[in-house]
Amino acid sequence: MTLYALLLLQDAAANDAGFTNMLVQRFNEGNEGGFMWPVLICLVIGLAISFERIISLNRSDVNTRKLMRSVKEALETGDGGVSQAEEVCANTRGPVASVVQAGLLRFDEGMDAVEKAVVAYGSIEMSFLERGLVWLSLFISLAPMFGFLGTVWGMILAFDAIEQAGDISPSLVANGIKVALITTVAGLIVAIILQVFYNYAVSKIDRIVAEMEEASVELIDALAMMTMGRPVRSAPDASSDEGA
User: Fold this and answer.
1) How many domains does the chain have?
2) CA distances from 46 to 52, 188, 235 (A)
3) Is residue 49 part of a domain?
4) Which of 36, 67, 80, 116 could cross-link to 31 by cystine, CB 3.0-4.6 Å?
5) pLDDT, tens digit (0-9, with 9 covering 90-100), for 167-203
6) Domain membership flag for residue 52
7) Could you list the residue range(s) of the whole structural domain that residue 81 is in?
8) Residues above pLDDT 70, as percent of the chain
9) What's the whole-model pTM score?
10) CB distance 143 to 56 below 8 Å
């Protein structure tokens, strides 16, 4: 059994080495015009931005319902309820907690100040969430463009070979057409990979922004209940209202 497992591992390693060698070979074949390097650079930088955004967005994602429940419980404790709610937000990571804390810090200035603070800080947090996506979108566009440039260069090589030989044969134009096709495929593959990460990041941002809006509505309703002397927990849950 152990020998069989070792043989399987050797076969897998051989297949991986063969695949890697094939990629290197194709890269060298398509790089005759030098356009494979820009495509590779787009892939490397795009993946770096994608991984950074995914890690950052996942760290920003918190349980919004649990956070707002803790904030409401803190607001019901009495005169120091706002300060305790601020401390709850300060001890919670993510943009939702930051927006709620910004509103609580302006509570002494009135409800209008709370609303303005929530809107202003929400815009700031949204810009932080979208940071780097413009560059990722740029590399998604550039990768196929460099691939198409390689395509044009490959066709130029094919026609140069025909011109020098004074004749048309498949062997003369094969190299140029190969360069054209390899660069096109490489550019499209890079764009597809980065587009998947881009769409994932955008969907994650949309969900976090929706949670920020829901938390903002809950906070304003809870503070309004508190100023009227009514129980804070009687304030409607924004997420529950949407579900209804």
Assistant:
1) 1
2) 10, 14, 44
3) no
4) 36
5) 777 776 777 888 888 899 999 999 999 999 999 999 9
6) no
7) 62-234
8) 82
9) 0.79
10) no
